[in-house]
Design brief:
By secondary structure, the protein is α/β, with parallel strands linked by helices. Helix content is 49%, strand content 12%. Strands 11-10-9-12-13-14-15-16 form an 8-stranded mixed β-sheet, with helices on both faces.
């Protein structure tokens, strides 16, 4: 067998998972076949067996499903998938009902299908290492745990107890698993596992046949079944609450809830079949493919450094300077200090610098108050931040990041006055969100060591960081910036220089398409609803208020000036012109300035509401609109612009496009990101729909041949 080694010695049958040619064990088709063969052998050898040990020859126990195989599935494959899942579960069931003690030796991570393999055992032993993770992350990939995971976890923990681990994919350490009763024994190291397993088997020698809890005639589900009044009350509202979160775009959590509830009302074997049916339907669906592609394959491509130039050793700066202690600079300072990096936070006055440092107190104090962080750890974090108005503390920084206002002259000034303070071999970064890096690097004495590192606000919550390579930025600087971003616990994407780079440029198309709709006379509430139904975190008008309408106009003015300086003329889009009118004619500058598309009442607890004047100024009662068109406009406009970035070499990979669009812009996760939306829709179908939108709504949706070629050439293959 190519994936499982079988050995029977002294009455102990050992099944060692060891998939040939793979760093991890997966539920590939070969493993499923080998499992069937080894199960048949175990049944044959039953009279000679006192106990069964499940072990791994890899550094982890078991990784789960074969996701590349999953990506090749079509909806027509669902019946075959159902049969395969059922065959695999039959093997699991045979092993656990053989009447012999089965022990899992969990030497490392067991996630998804790997945890379901671990659950075959009556007794689970794990190494006491907090870095090891167990659990069922399937819902985050658009799937459900369908190889007994939902059924068993519900029966082990109850409907309420299992909910975070199934519906929210909450992972847990070996010690947490012990406290939950999901692991039965912890050992200090791998060498201690087999003796512990043999000891458990020995304790059951000659004792009545062992069984799983749910096979005991006295078994009762923890917390009660759906017929329990307390559970029934919760279940009567759960689907509505869930639908409010998923907006009907994410079938996995809904299927998971249905599998839990339906399975809890029937016998164990029937519950398994219910689970298999839901998984077979889900695993062949477009949403699952989109999410697997992006949250597994694309995310792993970034984590493994596929966008990182392979020129420098891995790097972590010891001391980093931040120029500007506003919300952005303060957020970067906190993030660095929380990862143990010495941080110098500088502003023009000591009061401003101190206020920036106080942001770290604001974030950490609630954790201290709730006992989630010790006062000692809080003090250690704050000690990492030096707040100053002076230049001298910046001396010897490995990296200096300017996070000052979006003004070329100001950025040039702070670059020139601090760059010389860098340690030998240090580099300088700008946190600009729109200004081209090549232009900003003109203020630098060493443009090869000048790079864009674009954080998103609020820094402590936003996972993405966009690294921008200027025309003269060298590979070593890009590689070091990549390593720095990973060192502070963020997700790096790498893009080439251009106006707005990737994220700001594509984000601009989303909000300006919404603004254009206002100008067309479509009711603002309808536009916001379209954004929400598309799966964006908030509507385009609300998010523009948060980022400030005045900032959009500032960028527009700067763009016009830049075009004039180059001898050209910038043609503003309908959305840009509408926002400019709101700011310049009606003084609607955004939330921070008191109001934009929305009004923000000052009374405590009062909710924002759309500015009533939008109706009289812009709304046209007779204008036709359809919700599917509005949703498509918001999604297609972003995907078209992303594809243009790819064709212009602003983006160089699909994984950076997808991860960047989800974590930087809020592109819907159900679609798998702005490029995966194209591939998930089908390239030809996307082209046809984009052409329809272009005919009706203008050049923002036009796909040139060059863009179409880029889309086809970057299509992922499995």
């Amino acid at each position: 067998m190519k994936t499982i080694q079988y050995e029977l010695a002294d009455g102990i049958a050992t099944l060692t998972f060891d998939e040939e040619g793979s760093p991890v064990n997966t539920m590939c088709l070969q493993w499923q076949q080998d499992l069937a063969d080894v199960t048949a052998q175990v049944v044959k050898d039953k009279e000679s067996i006192r106990g069964i040990v499940l072990a791994s020859a890899k550094s982890t126990f078991f990784a789960g499903a074969d996701l590349k195989g999953t990506m090749r599935l079509q909806p027509s494959d669902a019946p075959r998938v159902f049969e395969e899942i059922e065959r695999m579960k039959k093997c699991f069931r045979t092993l656990e009902t053989l009447g012999r003690p089965v022990v899992s030796c969990l030497n490392g991570a067991a996630l998804g299908g790997g945890w379901e393999v671990a659950l075959i055992a009556h007794y689970r032993i794990a190494i006491d290492n907090p870095k090891i993770q167990f659990g069922l992350p399937e819902v985050t990939l658009g799937l459900i745990p369908g190889a007994t995971g939902v059924t068993k976890m519900t029966r082990l923990l109850g409907l309420m107890g299992a909910q975070p681990y199934i519906m929210e994919s909450k992972l847990f350490s070996p010690r947490e698993a012990l406290e939950l009763g999901l692991v039965h024994e912890l050992v200090p190291d791998a060498a201690s596992m087999r003796p512990a397993a043999l000891a458990f088997i020995a304790r059951h020698d000659g004792v009545s046949p062992i069984a799983q809890p749910w096979d005991d005639k006295n078994y009762k589900m923890p917390g009660g079944t759906p017929s329990n009044p307390k559970i029934a009350g919760m279940l009567s509202v759960a689907p509505a609450v869930l639908r409010q979160k998923t907006r009907g775009r994410y079938p996995a959590p809904e299927y998971a809830l249905a599998t839990m509830v339906e399975g809890a009302q029937v016998d164990y074997d029937t519950a398994l079949r219910i689970e298999s049916r839901y998984l077979a339907r889900l695993i062949t669906s477009p949403v699952a493919k989109n999410m697997i592609n992006t949250f597994f394959f694309d995310m792993n491509a970034i984590k493994s450094g596929q966008s990182r130039p392979a020129v420098a050793e891995r790097y972590k700066p010891k001391k980093v300077g931040i120029l500007g202690a506003g919300m952005m600079g303060a957020g970067i300072a906190y993030q660095q200090a929380s990862r143990g990096i010495e941080t110098v936070l500088r502003d023009v006055t000591q009061d401003k610098a101190d206020a920036g440092k106080a942001y770290s107190v604001k974030i950490t104090q609630p954790r201290v108050d709730k006992g989630r962080m010790s006062p000692h750890d809080q003090a250690a974090l704050l000690d990492k931040i030096t707040a100053t108005a002076a230049l001298e503390p910046l001396q010897g920084c490995d990296l200096i990041i300017e996070a000052v206002f979006e003004n070329r002259e100001l950025k040039a000034k702070v670059t020139q006055e601090t760059e010389a303070l860098l340690a030998p071999g240090g580099f300088f970064a700008s946190n600009t969100s729109t200004l081209p890096i090549t232009g900003l690097a003109k203020a630098s004495a060493n443009p090869a060591k000048f790079v864009g590192i674009h954080f998103f606000s609020p820094v402590d919550k936003m996972k993405l960081v966009e690294i921008i390579r200027g025309k003269q930025t060298d590979d070593e600087t890009v590689a070091r910036a990549f390593d720095y971003v990973q060192a502070i616990g963020k997700i790096p994407i790498v893009v080439n220089d251009s106006r707005g780079f990737f994220t700001s440029r594509v984000f601009g198309t989303f909000v300006m398409e919404g603004a254009a709709m206002v100008g067309e006379g479509i009711p603002a509430a309808v536009i916001e609803q379209a954004g929400m139904q598309a799966g964006m975190p908030v509507g385009p008008l609300a998010v523009m208020d948060e980022t400030a309408l005045s900032l959009s106009v500032h960028v527009l003015d700067q763009t016009r000036a830049d075009f004039r300086a180059e001898g050209g003329t910038y043609i503003a889009s309908p959305g840009e012109l509408l926002v400019e009118r709101l700011v310049k004619e009606y003084d609607r500058n955004g939330r921070a300035a008191g109001g934009g598309f929305y009004e923000y009442p000052q009374e405590k607890g009062a909710k924002k509401f759309l500015w009533p004047e939008l109706k009289s100024l812009f709304e046209k009662p007779g204008v036709p609109w359809s919700m599917p068109d509005l949703i498509d406009r918001l999604l297609y406009r972003q995907s078209v612009e992303t594809a243009r970035c790819l064709s212009e070499n602003v983006l160089t990979s699909v994984h950076d496009a997808n991860i960047g669009s989800i974590f930087g812009i809020g592109f819907p996760a159900w679609a798998g990101g702005a490029m995966q939306f194209i591939y998930g829709t089908g390239i030809d179908a996307f082209f046809a729909r984009a052409a329809q939108l272009a005919d009706t709504y203008g050049p923002g949706f036009v796909l040139t041949q060059k863009v179409k070629d880029a889309i086809r050439s970057h299509e992922p293959r499995y």
